[in-house]
Structure formats: structure tokens, C-alpha cells
Write a structure and sequence with these properties.
Length: about 130
């Protein structure tokens, strides 16, 4: 059985790395995100089995949040959070963009904030009139 490759040319699957770096709780979730086009490797769409190496740039979209990270180390096993954070470095542009989005969300109204419980009889009549019932 061959030995593990040297650290400078170590590689692992994209879905395994995303899981080990704790971007996703389960490896299947990482695989589904890659298949769904939510993850881009070096600016291009990738498959879950695509190999990742140190220096690669990964764009990850989770919900409304997009992160751009540069791979610093390779791991194919999930470790502690401290180990996971050492696997990548977020680009300054990505961190700045996420901070701006966080500020915008802070000032935006919460969806449904103007709704207060069940509709009244008057509201129900308006809904029925609007929907043509």
C-alpha cells in the first residue's frame, strides 16, 4: 500500500474538505451543495469528487451568505473547530461583503412583523374578495 503523499502535494475530495472544514454538518450536505452549484472551485463549477489542494480558491454559498476562502491545508477527517479554522483563510473582500450584508439585515424589517395572529373577520372578507371566492 503506498504511503500518503507529501504535505506539499496533498489532495482530497472537495466534499470531504468542505465537511472537514465544518462548512457543512454532514458530508452528504456538502455533496448536495456541490452538485447544486452552491460551491465553485477556482471560479468554475465542480463535482464533489474534484480534488482540492492548498492554494485553491473556493466560493461557498450557504443560504444568502457567500464566502470566498483560500485553502491553506488539507484534511480528509473532521477535527475540532480550531483545526477546521486552520484549513482555510477567508479573503478580505469576502469578510467585508458579509459584514455589509449583516448590517443591511440588521436594519431590514423582519418578514411578517406587521402580522399579528389570526386574521380578523374583516381581514378574512378582504382576503376572500381579493382571491375571488
Amino acid at each position: 500500500m503506498p504511503d500518503r503523499p507529501a504535505a506539499d502535494n496533498a489532495r482530497t475530495r472537495l466534499d470531504k474538505w468542505l465537511w472537514a472544514a465544518r462548512f457543512f454538518k454532514h458530508r452528504t450536505a456538502a455533496t448536495e451543495a456541490v452538485d447544486g452549484g452552491k460551491v465553485r472551485l477556482n471560479g468554475l463549477a465542480a463535482k464533489p469528487a474534484r480534488e482540492v489542494k492548498a492554494g485553491d480558491r473556493i466560493d461557498i454559498t450557504i443560504g444568502e451568505e457567500t464566502r470566498t476562502v483560500v485553502v491553506r491545508a488539507i484534511a480528509d477527517k473532521r477535527g475540532s473547530a480550531a483545526i477546521a479554522q486552520a484549513l482555510y483563510e477567508e479573503t478580505p473582500e469576502s469578510a467585508e461583503q458579509r459584514e455589509k450584508a449583516r448590517e443591511l439585515r440588521k436594519f431590514a424589517a423582519t418578514p411578517g412583523a406587521d402580522l399579528h395572529g389570526r386574521p380578523t373577520k374583516r381581514d378574512r372578507r378582504r382576503i376572500d374578495r381579493f382571491s375571488g371566492l
